[in-house]
Design brief:
The protein has about 300 residues and is α/β, with parallel strands linked by helices. It has a single domain, classed as 3-Layer(aba) Sandwich (Rossmann fold), CATH 3.40.50.720. The protein is about 40% helix and about 15% strand. The chain is built from ten helices and eleven strands. The protein has a seven-stranded parallel β-sheet with strand order 3-2-1-4-5-6-10, with helices on both faces. A two-stranded parallel sheet has the order 7-9. Strands 8-11 form a two-stranded antiparallel sheet. Helix 1 packs across helix 5, helix 2 packs parallel to helix 3 and helix 6 crosses helix 10. The protein is globular, with a radius of gyration of 19 Å. The two termini are about 35 Å apart. The model has no long low-confidence stretch (mean pLDDT about 95).
Length: about 300
């Protein structure tokens, strides 16, 4: 197969490109700042049609991951960049597919599990899940994230293309690669500061990178599946338990907790937002499970042990 990955130069894109290249497929990554890689890399601006669009003509699948990192302070400038980088890149990928003589069979479009409401009472699946934005007393930054997610998916839905379309509502993808979210969490644990965040009740949704890759392969192959699909392990767990399990897997018995106030202050100094850790993301992959997808790492304990083993 030929797989084209716009916005594929980040951690998740690299995980995917590496896996498909290892499987013997032709991989093309499209990004703003081309880098040397084992696969072919093509440049674009994420906004306008150009020579890059020829790569989509005749390919088997497009996996669009483009979007500015949300690991920043939500200033007006950053908010515009976060929103525009997602919506405009989605629209232009849709234009490229629409004009292709041989459009791809599948267009898999990045979205986010953050689209769901902050809740503790029940898990959010694709059928009965509650979309966010109407939570009582939700901070402005949380509402902004929901608005971005909705606009992102709306741009995808409104793109009229002949390809099958799947919106990937992804949880945090955990891999052993340096600089990723797992690397950050493990670093906190090993420095003795990997305790619960806030009251620790907020749910953490996650997915092991091998399951993420397998799910993408599976979605490309299963033509009966379209629409929104949650990419998350089937067993989300509260932050306190999540961190306790990680500490145990890492051989650390103690982890200093961080109060909500400490997290808010720390987020300012780290130039990020506390929403990324305080919002409860209780998401389950109902559609994947109902269609027969089998997870290698459905439980966080096993995933954490494997990831730590591969970081050593």
């Amino acid at each position: 197969m030929k797989i084209v990955i716009p916005g594929g130069s980040g951690q998740v894109g690299t995980v995917l490109a590496r896996a498909f290249e290892r499987d013997g497929h032709e991989v093309v990554v499209i990004c703003r700042r081309p880098v040397v890689a084992p696969w072919r890399v093509v440049s674009w601006d994420g906004v306008t049609l150009g020579d890059w669009s020829k790569e989509l003509d005749g390919c088997d699948a497009v996996i669009n991951l483009a979007g500015r990192s949300v690991n920043c302070r939500y200033t007006d400038v950053n908010r515009k960049a976060i929103l525009d980088s997602r919506v405009l890149s989605t629209l232009v990928v849709g234009q490229a597919i629409a004009q292709a003589k041989r459009p791809p069979r599948a267009w898999l479009q990045a979205s986010t599990a953050t689209i769901y409401a902050h809740r503790y009472d029940a898990a959010n699946d694709e059928e009965s899940g509650v979309l966010g934005g109407n939570e009582r007393d939700a901070p402005d930054t949380w509402t902004f994230s929901i608005d971005v997610a909705r606009a992102w998916e709306l741009a995808f839905e409104q793109s009229a293309v002949p390809s099958r379309k799947v919106a990937l509502r992804s949880a945090m993808t955990m891999s052993a690669d340096p600089g990723g979210i797992f690397d950050t969490l493990l670093g906190l644990v090993r420095h003795g500061i990997g305790g619960r965040a806030g009251d620790g009740r907020q749910y953490v949704s996650w997915i092991h990178h091998e399951d993420f890759v397998d799910a993408i392969r599976w979605l490309i192959e299963h033509e009966e599946v379209d629409g929104a699909v949650n990419l998350a392990a089937p067993n989300p767990l509260p932050n306190a338990e999540f961190m306790r399990t990680l500490r145990k897997a890492a051989g650390m018995s103690v982890g200093m907790p961080a109060s909500r106030l400490m997290l808010e202050i720390g987020a300012i100094f780290l130039r990020t937002e506390s929403e990324l850790i305080l919002k409860s993301r209780r998401v389950v992959p109902r559609r994947l499970l109902d269609h027969g997808f089998v997870f290698k790492y459905p439980v966080w304990r096993d995933a954490a042990v494997d990831l730590i083993r591969n970081t050593c």
